[in-house]
Amino acid sequence: MRHLGVIAIVIAIMSCSCSSPAPQSSGSDESLIKVGVFDGHGGAQTCIWEAVEAIKIDKGMTVRLVTTSDIAGGCLDSLDAIIVPGGGGSRQYLNLGHENHERIRAFIANGGGAVGICAGAYLFSSTPGYASMALNGAQAIDIEHDNRGHGLAKFTLSDEGKTIFPELASRDTSFVVYYEGPVFVEAQDTITYTSFATMESDVHEQGNAPANMTNGKPFFIGNYFGKGRVFSSIAHPEATPGMRWMIPRMVRWTLDREFVAYGQNAVRPDLFEQEILFTRDRLRQESAYYSTFLYGTPEDKIEALNWLESNVSWEAKRWVQGLLFDSSADVRVRAAEYVANSEFTRYLPDLRNAIRNEKDPAAREKMSASLSFLEGVLR
User: Fold this and answer.
1) For the chain, first and last CA: distance in Å?
2) Residue 322 has what DSSP assignment?
3) Contact indicator for 221, 196 with CB cutoff of 8 Å
4) CA nearest to 42, candidates 149, 120, 107
5) What letter does residue 210 receive in the DSSP assignment?
6) What DSSP designation does 137 have?
7) How far is CA 310 from the centre of its chain?
8) 134: phi > 0 → left, psi -120 to 50 → alpha, else beta; which?
9) Residues 6 or more apart from 184 whose CB is under 8 A from it?
10) What is the per-residue pLDDT across 35-72, written as a single tens digit (0 to 9) for each?
11) Which end of the chain is more exposed for a tag (fewer CB within 10 A), N or C?
12) For strand 183-186 and strand 138-141, is the pairing parallel, antiparallel, or unpaired?
């Protein structure tokens, strides 16, 4: 019976802890900003991964996954901020449940930070006819055309936005991946938000969406909620090479913490200088490259990688992992470059093992250069 009592105590302790251990970071545990990324039904797997990886850029933060069970078990008490990533906002709403909605509201009202990305921003809105939490003072419109399209969208910062992202302050226009995010206007409630950036791209190629709906609308917004702050992004900096550092910066804003500088491998705003919106033709070409990776020649695969990287493909991020172990050394080298250039730090273990297994000295040297760059993103 004594053993059963010990087991019960261990289970009780585990139920109140977050679902995954925090990675090693510099600084003492007390000084680290503790961030949880919501990992629940409705969150897209790659969006969850990329939010976690973006936080790792900030050496003053530690990050872990948080489930509905964790929140119900009191996990928010051990966090400074929570991120709700992209996916499906209404599904995330359902997965959380009303009691956890209230726990999150109380967490923010008592001084916690919250960042909503795309679906997370949708979840935080006050949208009639849509399951949402009324946290950010925004209302999504034209919700019947949510599948309006995606691509590398252009945005401009407000004066307030430039104080949060001074690395972009000298640029007239910057670019971040957008994927069917909400179109926001001010909601009819008591919360007032500040617009930090404006969407300048008109995304309407898919889903018979109307033109001139997304452009001129808020891109990033922030607001107070009780003693805490909420930052909402309709787009995906965490999925944009050179711009992923914006996510930990958003977290720091929600907590009113000092902004820190990030390394030159991470901060690359000049990487893109024009929008790349996915037309139906681009979508067909992107889709065809999946078969190329299955059945194409090494030359075909390299051509596909060149196109997918230059067009900032959303789908390819789940295709390139296995190419690090392709039968062709040339493909392995190009896949390593793709992973590094796209900042897929999630694939660092794959890249390290690919280099460990590489028999071609020239290929190993080139792949090692890609590894060095990718590791530098997190330094």
Assistant:
1) 50
2) G
3) yes
4) 120
5) P
6) S
7) 20
8) left
9) 121, 125, 138, 139, 140, 141, 217, 218, 221, 232, 234
10) 999 999 888 999 999 999 999 999 999 999 999 999 99
11) N
12) antiparallel
Return the SS3 of 218: strand
Phi and psi torsions of 176, nearest 5°: -145, 150
Per-residue pLDDT tens over the stretch 172-226: 999 999 999 999 999 988 899 999 999 999 999 888 899 999 999 999 999 999 9
363-367 LR contacts (CB < 8 Å, sep 24+): 363/329, 363/330, 363/332, 363/333, 366/333, 366/336, 366/337, 367/332, 367/333, 367/336
> What letter represents residue 178's amino acid?
Y
Our CA angle for 171, 173, 176, nearest 5°, is 115
For residues 43 and 119, the answer to whether their CB atoms sit within 8 Å is: yes
Other C-beta atoms lying within 10 Å of the C-beta of residue 203: 24
- pTM beyond 0.90: yes
Percent of the chain with pLDDT over 90: 88
